[in-house]
Amino acid sequence: MTIGERVLELIHDRGMTQKEFSEITGIPQSTMSSWKGKKQNPGMDKLQVICDVLKIDPYYLVSGTKVNEAVNADYILVYRDNKEEYDLMVEYRKLNEDNKKRIEGYIQALMEMQLKD
Questions:
Q1: With 88 labelled, which of 30, 61, 94, 100 sits at a CA distance of 20 to 30 A?
Q2: How far is CA 51 from CA 33, 58, 91, 104, in A?
């Protein structure tokens, strides 16, 4: 599946029309038609707006694989509208190294407890 085809599928999955998507992103419907008919892909300059509107990470858009399914992903993407997770990451990054290690220890202990349940 091409990136363009994946975008069209995601638009449909989100219950959007191509017209609505076009109005939100500024990407002409004729461009979207070429993604399917001519098997073309969106330009690099459009990838971030597509990801933002469809609420997907760029890794998934390009590869078709969710980051948590990827074995060697180098990054994760946290959207601001997932407030709790986003705020947690922002605050974690403010911590000094000792406190980051403590948080990581808590997470490890919680994961071990969860496995026992």
A1: 61
A2: 18, 6, 24, 29
Could you tell me if residue 77 is inside a domain? Answer: no
Give the three-class secondary structure for 22. Answer: helix
In 3D, which of 73, 29, 31, 78 has the Cα closest to residue 51?
78
**Overall number of domains in the chain:** 2
Nearest to 2 by CA among 62, 49, 54: 62
pTM of full prediction above 0.70? no
Range of the domain at 110: 83-116
List, for residues 31-82, the tens digit of each pLDDT value.
998 888 888 888 888 888 999 899 888 878 888 876 555 445 566 667 777 7
Task: Please report, as a single letter, which amino acid is at residue 84.
Answer: E
